[in-house]
Amino acid sequence: MGRTLITGLAVLVAGLAAAAVWAGTSRSAAQADERDRRAAVQAATVHAAALLALDHRTVDQDVKRLIDTSTGQAREGYVRGRAAMRQATLEREVSQTGVLRASGLVSMDGERHTAEVLVVGDALIRWEADDKDAPEERLYRWRMEVTEVGDRWLVSRSELVQ
């Protein structure tokens, strides 16, 4: 009887230890998933803020910020369009300032290390080279795909949505 009791207690202790390890692993995975969700939304938000802040006096740094917060198709587009964006911004002395209004995670694909985020912002655009053009207010809504690259989340695709 004593041996059976000891064996039963050993099995019980082993079962409790396994349950504790499983619970700890599940909690760690849930915390990692939450960190990824927050990081994905934060990456889209930082990129959108860079899109809203374009000024002819700082255009080179502004475009660099867009390139630095993007990857893949989005990054290639900024690199390809850098000279044209710079020229247009300088010629018309564009100054755009904006405010982010909302952002939210739409979906997340853990296997592909991608997420879809919606971001909304307002901007005020001034063309300082032309006194006839009144400042213009714009509302932007973006659907952004963000991709985990190494230990960073970067915007891999960005599109305006209606």
Key phrases:
alpha+beta, 3 helices, 5 strands, five-stranded antiparallel β-sheet, elongated, Nuclear Transport Factor 2, Chain: A, 162 residues, 50% helix
Describe this entry's structure for a reader.
The chain is of the alpha+beta class and 162 residues long. The chain has one domain: Nuclear Transport Factor 2, Chain: A. Helices cover 50% and strands 34% of the residues. The chain contains three helices and five strands; from the N terminus they run αβααββββ. Strands 1-2-3-4-5 form a five-stranded antiparallel sheet. Strand 3 and strand 4 form a beta hairpin. Helix 2 packs antiparallel against helix 3.
Q: Predict the CATH topology.
A: Nuclear Transport Factor 2, Chain: A
| Strands, total number | 5
Number of domains: 1
- Identify the strand order in the major beta sheet: 1-2-3-4-5
Radius of gyration: 25 Å
Oligomer: single chain
Question: How would you characterize the largest beta sheet?
Answer: 5 strands, antiparallel
Please identify, by name, the CATH architecture.
Roll
Strand-residue proportion: 25-35%
With helices defined by DSSP (H or I, 4 residues minimum), what is the helix count? 3
Shape: elongated
Full CATH superfamily name: VirB8 protein
Find the structural class using helix and strand composition. alpha+beta
Signal peptide: 1-23
Keywords: Membrane, Signal
Protein name: Mce-associated membrane protein
Subcellular location: Membrane
